Amino acid sequence: MFHEQTLLLVEVCFTLLTTALLVAAALGVGKQAELRLWALGNVVACLGLALGVQSGVPTFIHAVLSYGFMGLGQALVLRGLRLYAGQDLSLKSLVAIAAASLLLPAYFTWVEPSLTGRLVASGLGFAALDLACLVTLLRVRDRTRAMMWVAATGFGVLSAALILRALWLLLHGDAPADQELVANGTLFIIPLAQVCIAFGLVLMITRRYAEELRRLSLTDRLTGAYNRAALSTLGLRLLQRARRSGRGVAVAMVDVDHFKHINENFGHAAGDEVLRQLSALLLAQLRPGDLVVRYGGEEFLLLLDGLNGTTAERVCERVRKLVVETRINLPNAELNYTVSIGLSSSEASGHELEKLINAADSALQKAKAEGRNRVLLG
Ligand SMILES: Nc1nc2c(ncn2[C@@H]2O[C@H](COP(=O)(O)OP(=O)(O)OP(=O)(O)O)[C@@H](O)[C@H]2O)c(=O)[nH]1
After folding, report:
1. Radius of gyration of the chain, Cα coordinates, nearest whole angstrom
2. What is the pLDDT of residues 183-232, one digit of tens each?
3. Among 40, 199, 207, 311, which is most buried by a count of CB atoms within 10 Å?
4. Ligand 1 neighbourhood includes 268 CB (under 6 angstroms)
5. Residues near 308 by Cβ (< 8 Å), separated by ≥ 6?
């Protein structure tokens, strides 16, 4: 079929290309540590491959050191994947993998000299590392899962090709591989799997990056609640769904009482802490389908899905009481605060967001005028 040297050259070219792709992505797409590890791992593996194809250099370099570099490169890729999956690969394990990648070929070079032994042992070692990468990827459970399959297929195919090649070498020894379908086939498949892996990894990281940007564009940095941009999309969606299925929706406008005084008496940082804790309390008290939006400086808007005015009043009264009981510990003082809540409901105002907000705002102004620290249904 193909000449083994030609296939080896193709593999070197593909490795260089996929490494260049990962390095370019690492330099271009934010500062993801995992992407840097994948790029670094590929550069190190590339170096190993380059040393391995050198002729006229000491045996230690092309037959032992090159495998060490390739093993270290692969271990760095695995470390990046584990980081991506929210797991860890200790530095000790990293060193152990690199050491094993050095020692195996060293054994078959000096202790029990055998080219077949070296190729088989190293091939199986790398296949095990690829399988570890595959298993790590299969544990990822987020929205990037669809992209993950591209890289997972690459790792699966690569490990299968390496195992197949190791078995072929075991059966055929050091015989020239030029005419052999399995030997040539696996050498042909390896670069394709590498392309799959590199593209899969870049797709995964860009998808996760896009998700993160989307999340940041919809949330308020200080409190973690949704921002007004989110209200216009997620709020409208919630109301449309509720209208279609005939569910009621209540809107609550929650405002911290005398917040200006909190800032003046305790400092801006204390004011920020009040907002953070209020947001956390609201998020904890409401149901997952509800929306908590930071509507203004010290004002939060709640969209309560499936609630009528009376039930929403009970929920908001519970929130108000919890706020009264809350003590915020500052470095030199203890702070307590209250909130006023204005409520509107779809029974009275319909399912239109603007009308619901206006009605809740009017109710809030009344609650403030009546003395604050109360819930008022408009
Ligand atoms: N610490 C902090 N303060 C903020 C933030 N955003 C707005 N504010 C402050 O919130 C205060 C709001 O003051 P007002 O609108 O007078 O409301 P209030 O003092 O709560 O009075 P009432 O609502 O009538 O009880 C202003 O002093 C703003 O500077 C923020 O992110 N952090």
Report:
1. 31
2. 677 777 888 999 999 999 999 988 888 888 999 999 999 999 999 999 99
3. 40
4. yes
5. 248, 250, 345, 347
User: DSSP character for 342?
Assistant: E
Residue bearing the CA closest to ligand 1, atom 7: 297
Tokens for 23, please give them.
């390095």
How far is Cα 81 from Cα 38, in angstroms, rounded to an integer?
A: 8
Which of 310, 373, 364 has its CA nearest to residue 336?
373
Shortest-distance Cα residue to atom 23 of ligand 1? 257
| 122-175 residue pLDDT tens | 999 999 999 999 999 998 877 777 788 999 999 999 999 999 989 988 888 765
Domains defined along the chain, listed by start: 4-218 (1.20.1070), 228-377 (3.30.70.270)
Q: Which residues lie closer than 8 Å to 334 by C-beta, 6 or more apart?
A: 327, 328
CA of 129 to the centre of ligand 1 (A): 56
Cβ(307)–Cβ(315) below 8 Å: yes
